[in-house]
What does this fold into?
Amino acid sequence: MSDLKTNDDAETLDGATLDAESSAGRAEPELSSPTRRRPSVTTSVLAVLLFAVLAVAGLFAYQLENRRSLDTSRSEAVDTARTFAITLFTYSADTFDTYVDDVLSGATGSLADTFVETSSDLQATLVEAGATSSAQILDIAAKSSTLDRVEVLVIIDQTASNATVTEPRQAVNAVIMTLERQEDGRWLTSDVTNPSAGR
It folds into this structure.
């Protein structure tokens, strides 16, 4: 009869059943999470050293830039002082109005205030005496400096004459000029002192 199973068919069915049961009984392998590695001592040390090197390099760059800025300020102030000293110590009664304008264009602070207050008396004195003066710079150097304020020592050779003196008198004077940087970048002189005046 066709309903009867042969031995071969039985063995096949039994084998398939066993294989299916074996497959079902096998558990799926668990996926293990990656192991977290702690940084080694060497890596930590290298990281600290790198941070230290970067910090030192940053500090060095800042100091270098600050030094360059100071050098620029000092150079600009000295150049301005050289020109202004000649302007301040070169005058004539005949051109006094121009002299006042030139001085005030380079002065600020207490120097500008003092010059405005005394210019009328100075003009009267110069006109009465027929006085003239010319100056040249013998030596000049920055005495102290910050980014926006520089003190400059100026050695001036000044030649003065008046109506009553036939031979011009020559004198060498030392003055300290204080220059300040303005918001527009210009350097103006706020004070002029004679360091030997108090001696």
Q: What stands out?
A: The two ends are 145 Å apart (CA to CA). Residues 47-193 form a domain with the Nuclear Transport Factor 2; Chain: A, fold (CATH 3.10.450.540).
